[in-house]
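Example 5.3 — Aldouronate transport system substrate-binding protein
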Amino acid sequence: MRVKPRLFFQIFMCTVLVSLSACGRSAGSSNDEAGGQNSKGAPERAEISIMTITPSTPPASDDNVIKREIEKLTDSKLDIQWISNNVYDDKLNITLVSGEMPDLTYISDPFGPSFRNLVKQGAIWDITPYLKDYPNLQKGVPEVAWELTKMEDGKNYGIPRGRDANDVSFLILRKDWLDKLGLQTPKTTEELYGVLKAFAEKDPDGNGKADTFGLSAGIDTLTGTFREIFTGVTGSWKEEGDGLTYAPFLPEARESLAYLAKLYSEKLLPEDLLTLKTTQVRDYYIGNRAGGVIDKTGTGPKVYSPGLKKLVPSYKEADFYPLAALNGFVPKGTGFNGILAIPKTVPEDKLKQILKLVDTWLTPEVSAVQRFGIEGIHYRVENVVKIVDPDKLLKDNASDFNQIVNSIDPALNPPPANPELKELEDLRSQVDAQRSKENVPDIGVGLYSPVAEKLLPDLEKRISDLTAKIVIGQEPLSAWDDLVAKTKSDPQFIQATKEMSDAYRKRNGH
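Solution (predicted structure tokens):
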């Protein structure tokens, strides 16, 4: 019996290539039909599409060396759509409306109306039941972030993109000025007043001129920070009884306005307070004019110290001195910046692959890749310390990947490069430890009220305008009393407060 040439050729190719699995399937079959395995019987790499924000131009390419390393360590193939942060919200809204979300999508505002509607429609995975199987999702994201990103039904519809909850903007003082004037670190607003007055009147820069003042800050940051300090409330809502009350209308908020008006009238604040931009606020400190600012502790070495050291060679990194608290209060950060959501168009098996991807990405081994890069390319090791080439790391867009997964593991922080930075790091650790005992979270984050959503933007603008005028003396405190009384009797405001209280009770299972 003759073997037909075509059959003979098939047998020959199977023998030579040892492609038994290929010969056992028709030409039209695929790995998916074979159970999603490759020719060696191993599971195929997870192919996952991602859409996220980027500040870089251009963003990381598809064959980026950092991306390839992350893919290797997470056993995945990532199709990343990078969108400029300038247009991201517009692009996101179009994507959400289209119903064609990538497998993993960065949601900048998890409580915006578009995303809320998708959740209500059942179009987004509730990941709450799965979290117990992925321990790094709990370790790599602050607990407060998981709590504050819950929807009104008490469930999580995305993975929070982690941030250090202790790393908040708060008061920073010049420690060298405190020491020179023999002043103690203030712990109350009354003590702070004495410090700021000394900074303005006792010539802390030693030039014999009356050219210094106490605290540099923009008007909104200033009034918001001190309202929280006086009320002891982070954000706009305080728990009272079994409901919520609007914190800006508490009596202590009025006291904060009187306090700030006094500081301004005594020239302890910048005269051009109302028009200051962020750069101008910082320039007063950098220019050796102001004894304090409101900012994050991590901004010292990068933003403030280089310029100030040119004017004051004796200035040290640890002279950028963060207060742990005032009046026993410090705000607590939300612990997140947006969430990563997974649409219901993704089947459950792939959902688990995505959760596994992020869980693995949050391990120190993988997260270190975007923090330090790859040995021999972006860093070298000397005495067990990674010496990073920042220019090479920047060129390869390493920080872009923080816009997908961002670990808060302190073990990933590089060691301080010199004794000055070591002293600052030790100080920051002490402050963080103290803040973790006293900080207060914003309980209003994520609470939903249809009436509040419409009412609050206009109310907050009126509050902002009036508080600014009161601080600089253009309006009396009685104008504040009038606004509070009128608003508290408004049926819309009463309904908004009721709805916010209901949402708070629901989220907490009451």
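Remark. Residues 1-42 have pLDDT under 50 and may be disordered.
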